[in-house]
Amino acid sequence: MSTEFAAPFAALPVAPRDPRLADAPLLRAARRLRPAHTPVWFMRQAGRSLPEYRKVREGIAMLDSCRRPELVTEITLQPVRRYGVDAAIFFSDIVVPLKAVGVGLDIRPGVGPVIDQPFRTRADLDRIPELEPEMISDIAESVGLLTAELGGTPLIGFAGAPFTLASYLVEGGPSRDLARTKALMYSDPQLWEALLQRLAQISAGFLRVQVAAGASAVQLFDSWVGALPLADYRRFVQPSSAAVLDAVRELDPTVPRIHFGVQTGELLPAMAEAGADVVGVDFRVPLDVATARLGGDHAVQGNLDPALLFASREVLGQRVRQTLEAGAAAPGHIFNLGHGVLPDTDPDQAKFVVDTVHAWKG
Ligand code: 1CP
Fold first, then answer.
1. Considering the entire predicted model, what is its pTM?
2. pLDDT digits (tens, 9 = 90+) for 254-304
3. Structural element, H or E, at residue 312
4. DSSP secondary-structure letter at 39?
């Protein structure tokens, strides 16, 4: 798939980075260099499980909160202050760039993204214009505020991968079986490719704006792609994700790219081929097994089961160390959960995980 869609983002000037970032454990692990300690952060660390998050979000709709630079900065910094994690993840959502190009959608509390008019036919492509940098100038502003505050702590920018974005557009909201998405993919491959190409432009543009403004790593979330078998992943999905990952490398080859999905045990070799530097692994596959499936030369991220944060400290500590030992088989390991922090998680348990990871002498 061509990456020509990347203009006008190709010309974005890239902000200078804080020199202290050169030693940041997260960036060293992603580059497969030995870090001072194993880095740790949590998917969904900013948000729902923190009382200070619920307080600042009171009365503000999710999508509005993502477009207010001071609020985005505060929410993004909250888990860094509380946990001492090795990276901040930008507070936003995968559907923010879709809303920015004009797709009618909302994020409903307790549900997730809901689309006004689901994507069904070729005519629907006209309702998804390409993303332009000016549509998300507030995102660049938020990233700028954040990197000034974060100093030597990396900011991870992120976007939804084309398949996962398509799943919300086609289904109209969260779905268990992705039946309509798969039906479109299998029955009209040409329209599917056109949709994924458009979404790749949007996803790449969202990442490029964050990188240009100072994000020092990015994560591409293909959360629901584990619903596909390997051969269909390769044929129908991998080219568009690879195009997004390439677009980031073209803008700044020094920025590590992390690629994550849930239930991707069977897809790991093909995800490695899509070109990321780090592959995120869910909790179903031990990290040493995942490393072998990836061919041995990728850094990995993961993969403690988020449910273990509800277990006793003794069990939790053992499982954290077990994850660290398995991760040592990879040429680089970023500790994380196998998916996002669950809403009722006790923040003290998450802090205990961070402290246990940092104390580990591998
Ligand atoms: O801390 C962080 O990780 C930063 C913030 C963040 C990220 C990275 C949010 C805030 N959303 C995301 C990414 C995201 N959004 C993904 C990929 C990550 C993953 O797999 O967990 C996905 C699939 C979404 C879509 C989405 N947005 C859902 C899932 C719905 C489903 O299909 O099951 C939900 C519930 C949302 C809303 C949302 N996004 C973020 C927050 C804090 C919330 C809850 C908002 C609220 O209702 O107040």
1. 0.96
2. 999 999 999 999 999 999 999 999 999 999 999 999 999 999 999 999 999
3. none
4. -
CA distance 358 to 248: 30
| CB 21, CB 154: distance < 8 Å | yes
Residues 6+ apart with CB under 8 A from 359: none
Residue 4 pLDDT > 70: no
Of 153, 23, 133, 28, nearest in space to 79 by CA: 153
Q: Is the pLDDT score of 120 beyond 70?
A: yes
- Pairing state of beta strands 217-221 and 299-304? unpaired
CA of 247 to the centre of ligand 1 (A): 24
Please name which of 201, 185, 194 lies closest in space to residue 244, comparing C-alpha atoms.
201
Residue bearing the CA closest to ligand 1, atom 22: 94
Both tokens assigned to 82? 């509380």
In sequence order, what are the residues at sequence separation of 6 or more whose Cβ sits closer than 8 angstroms to the Cβ of residue 55? none
**Residue in the block written with tokens 């005519």:** 123
Burial category of 79 from C-beta neighbours within 10 Å (exposed 0-12, middle 13-18, buried 19 and up): buried
Which atom belonging to ligand 1 lies closest to the Cα atom of 57?
Answer: 48
Going along the chain from its start, the domains and CATH numbers come out as 3-359 (3.20.20.210)
> Is beta strand 105-108 parallel, antiparallel or unpaired with respect to 88-89?
unpaired
| Ligand 1 touching residue 42 (CB < 6 A) | no
pLDDT for 56 equals: 97
DSSP 282-305: -TTS-HHHHHHHTTS-SEEEEEE-
